[in-house]
Amino acid sequence: MGGIDKEYVGFAALPNQLHRKSVKKGFDFTLMVAGESGLGKSTLINSLFLTNLYEDRQLPEASARLTQTLTIERRGVEIEEGGIKVKLTLVDTPGFGDSVDCSDCWLPVVRFIEEQFEQYLRDESGLNRKNIQDSRVHCCLYFISPFGRGLRPLDVAFLRAVHEKVNIIPVIGKADALMPKETQALKQKIREQLKEEEINIYQFPDCDSDEDEDFKRQDAEMKESIPFAVVGSCEVVRDGGTRPVRGRRYSWGTVEVENPHHCDFLNLRRMLVQTHLQDLKEVTHDLLYEGYRARCLQSLARPGARDRASRSKLSRQSATEIPLPMLPLAETEKLIREKDEELRRMQEMLEKMQAQMQQSQTQGEQSEAL
Amino acid sequence: MYRRWGRRRAWVERDGRPVGAQDAAGEWIGADLVSSSGESRVSKAPPAFVNGFTSTQPHPLPIRGSFHATTVGLKGKCSRDVMTRKAQHLYYLGFQRKGLPTSGTEDCLLPGNSAGDLKHCGTSNGQTEEDTRMFCFPAMGHRHCCVLGPMDPMRRSPSPCPSRPSSPRTPPCEMLGYVGIEAVLDQLKIKAMKMGFEFNIMVVGQSGLGKSTMVNTLFKSKMWKSTVQGLGTPTPQTLKLQSVTHVIEEKGVKLKLTVTDTPGFGDQINNDKCWDPILGYISEQYERYLQEEILITRQRHIPDTRVHCCIYFVPPTGHCLRPLDIEFLQRLCRTVNVVPVIARADSLTIEERETFRRRIQHNLRTHCIEVYPQKCFDEDINDRILNSKIRDRIPFAVVGADREHLVNGRCVLGRKTKWGIIEVENLAHCEFPLLRDLLIRSHLQDLKDITHNVHYENYRVCRLNESHLLPRGPGWVNLAQTPAGPLAAPQPSKVHQQAQEDSEDGDEY
After folding, report:
1. Which ranges form a coiled coil (chain A) (predicted)?
2. Element (H, E) at B130
3. Which structural domains are found in chain A, ordered by start?
């Protein structure tokens, strides 16, 4: 007994502590959905989280759409399952790709994402950091039309604009319009195009080599099926003798949403909610946010930019009423040190010159005396 | 009480040719039954009328209880061939009322006048729809010589008769015996078959909506090589129209079909003015025809490249028409017949289709977009009834496929998915048969007529006004040489000559 006690330290229980703390704290997750209207975005979200997030949505009429511009809408819902609370925020982009001229229609989206980063940066650099609200967008589900021949020019433009700022998961909406061969061909084409245009979508982390074969296989399957071809539905179809399933009933058959042979809904749900939710948040924080922060601060380090930025920042009231420090302390110190060095050198030079002058003076006096 | 026509055989055939009518008593009834006084030669029944008029009653409907020679006499005893020919120039004005033969039965050939009830029982006798289309449905109130009214198959409505019944005092056409005018139909048919038909359609829509597949399915031939999803050429940067012409033949009838495709429509980020090349193409075809038409020595048959029908593919979003759709349709409906369809409708359930369709119809009404069949071109009540049914279902929710699969032992065109096979020609699955019937089987000629009589004429009037050309009298165009514009270029000499001749003739300048 004693021997075992000596070896057993006890931190194997740490994950449990983490678990308890997380459960108490709850999770929050911000998901953005983007894509043309009519690709089944809202249905898919409702199916994913099994809540009707779009209950009060009013679809605009055709005449209203003629003058519609892109707006950003946020909806929040708290989902609880098994004692764990998830505070889900959904960011929607109605009006995307609807108008005749869609040039620059992605700019409001980019601005929104950057605003969230900026808010977080300010909160992080402020004094009171106890309750930082993380409103950064953790994941963007981008819906691609199943009727096109791959990515459309608008898709490419949007993805290029946001791929360094948010985790992108491309999704093919309304995939029940496609036959199996068509789905494969379309996925292949999209993957090629993404590579060609150098768009960085969210990369699933490779599973560890010590995972079991089953898990590895599942993982490989999931990676193969990106972009996910999904079908969404909240209606339960009861087909006579068979058990009730969620699906869409057509006169030629019923598409089952949760059938892996019919669509990739299960894969998407597993990946988004069950296995990689935390990873998405981490990548957002460690990679994307840090990248944004570095860019932001480097641009501030340039003198001209710095002044402009400082003025604009001071003009805006921050919550803590303290002007945001422009540079991290390390950098200011460096500058100060440099300046100090310069001063010191200059002082030394002056002293040397003074010494020389004195010497020459004394020498001159001495020579005069003699 | 309706007297069964059997007691009063309206037609007697002799050697397969209709001779006249004999009633049960053996008396010849014939057309002189349509006497001015409305009296029947034969019976003492209240004023009989073959075509439903009585002298006393202004109402055109037959009085209940009176007899009518149905003059159709198409009951089983007639041979099918004779019936077809007869059917073409015969009909009875059976107005459906209680006790009268219901339309659709074998006895009576015609339209019941109950609103919306346009079944011609021609179909029950095994006639094809083409034949029944050759019928002239008498509008209510018309007086017809029921016996040997020859029919102009090219017109669908009866010759312009006064809408109110003419006074029974006017002498009817008394034709005793067989003249043979009906053979005109055969002549026309032979000529048409020799010359062949032309039909030009244009398909417009975003890429991937199944336009090429739809054309292949419509004409059951590989007009285009439909590209598989994901493969094929990338969408072009600008809109380029491509035309393909094929001659297809069915049962001796040749059809020269030209299909114009519009790849790249609506695919760019900025789709403003993407409709201009299409409108330009359509105007160009009208211009070509106009140029041919104003020549002094014209060709016998002007090659017709005008777009007769434009099929617009609406993506199945399920919400409503997009701004691009509305802009395009508004502009196009003024120059060409447009038939909107809901493309790739296999992604919508039946209920979703209905809501989408209603919304689209509402949008079209709000924005005053008149799609084919246009309400204002309905010539008479029958047209209106037929076309209302079509208008109720427009836009059709269609699915296209050019692969065949085995379903219940039959080979059908369809799309095979893991949850079922979508049969293209099954009305329960999609409305492709309705589209095909509209475009090819029933309204092909009408599309061409409206293009020629309405759209082309509008274009012509605009062009002539533009070049300050004044029409001199019906069908006579005085063409002065225009300083600029395509009219000047091709045959200035001929045009000028004609203008000179005209100016010599007319002193009204």
Report:
1. none
2. helix B129-133
3. 21-52+68-95+105-300 (3.40.50.300)
Query: What distance lies between CA A296 and its chain's CA centroid?
Result: 16
Lowest mean pLDDT among B141-150, B166-175, B215-224: B141-150
Q: What is the pLDDT of residues A31-84, one digit of tens each?
A: 999 999 899 999 999 888 888 777 767 777 777 777 777 888 888 888 888 778
Three-class DSSP category at B390? helix
Write the residue in A37, A179, A248 that is nearest to B416 by C-beta. A179
List the helix and strand counts (H, then E) for chain A.
Answer: 13, 9
Helices and strands (H, E) in chain B, number of each type: 12, 11
Amino acid at A233: S
Q: Which residues fall within 8 angstroms of residue B296, CB to CB, at 6 or more apart?
A: B494, B497, B498
d(CA B413, CA B69): 47
Lookup result for tokens 């929710």: B397
Q: Report CB contact under 8 Å: A65, B323.
A: yes
Q: Where do we find the tokens 């940067």? A: B237
DSSP code at position B26: S
Q: Which of A44, A149, A187 to mutate to test the interface with B (most CBs of B within 10 A)?
A: A149
Q: What are phi and psi of A16, to 5 degrees?
A: -65, -40
Q: What is the DSSP letter of B414?
A: E
Alpha helices in A26-61 (DSSP H): 41-49
Question: Two tokens at A139?
Answer: 């994941």
What is chain B's length?
509
Non-local CB neighbours of B317 within 8 Å, separated by 6+ positions: A36, A37, A38, A39, B356
What tokens does B288 get? 């070509």
Burial class from Cβ neighbours inside 10 Å (0-12, 13-18, 19+) for residue B217 reads buried
* Cβ contact, residue pair B227, A188, below 8 Å: no
Q: Which residue of A has its CA nearest to B416?
A: A179
Q: Which two tokens stand for residue A302?
A: 């340039």
Give the Cα-Cα-Cα angle B383, B389, B390 (nearest 5 degrees).
90
Count of CB atoms within 10 A of residue A205's CB? 12
| Min Cα separation A43/chain B (Å) | 12
Three-class SS string for A73-101? Answer: EEEEEEEEECCEEEEEEEEECCCCCCCCE
Of B199, B214, B232, B447, the closest CA to residue B314 belongs to: B214
Structure token pair of residue A24: 């108490």
Residues 6+ apart with CB under 8 A from A232: A40, A43, A44, A45, A46, A47, A48, A257, A265
Specify the amino acid at residue A225: S
Identify whether the C-beta of residue B429 lies closer than 8 Å to the C-beta of residue A251. Answer: yes
Which chain A residue's Cα is nearest to B351? Answer: A250
What is the dihedral sign for C-alpha B179, B184, B190, B194? positive
pTM: 0.67
Burial class of residue A293 in the structure, from the number of CB atoms within 10 Å of its CB (0-12 exposed, 13-18 middle, 19+ buried): middle
For residue A89, count CB atoms less than 10 angstroms from its CB and return exposed for 0-12, middle for 13-18, buried for 19 or more.
middle
- Which of B347, B351, B361, B421 to mutate: most A Cβ within 10 Å? B347
Instruction: Say which DSSP state B270 is in.
Output: B
Task: Please provide the average confidence, as pLDDT, over all residues in chain B.
Answer: 67
Structure-token match 């739809």, residue found:
B214
Do B167 and B224 touch, CB atoms closer than 8 A? no
Instruction: Pull the structure tokens for residue B286.
Output: 């009208």
Q: Is B5 exposed, middle or buried (0-12, 13-18, 19+ CB in 10 A)?
A: buried
Cβ atoms B186, B221 nearer than 8 A: no
Mutation for B interface: A42, A63, A99, A147, most B CBs within 10 A: A147
Contacts of A188 in chain B (CB under 8 A): 230
**Is B384:B118 a contact under the CB 8 Å cutoff?**
no
Q: What is the pLDDT of residues A320-353, one digit of tens each?
A: 433 455 545 556 667 787 888 889 889 999 999 9
Residues B400 and B216 sit within 8 Å (Cβ to Cβ): yes
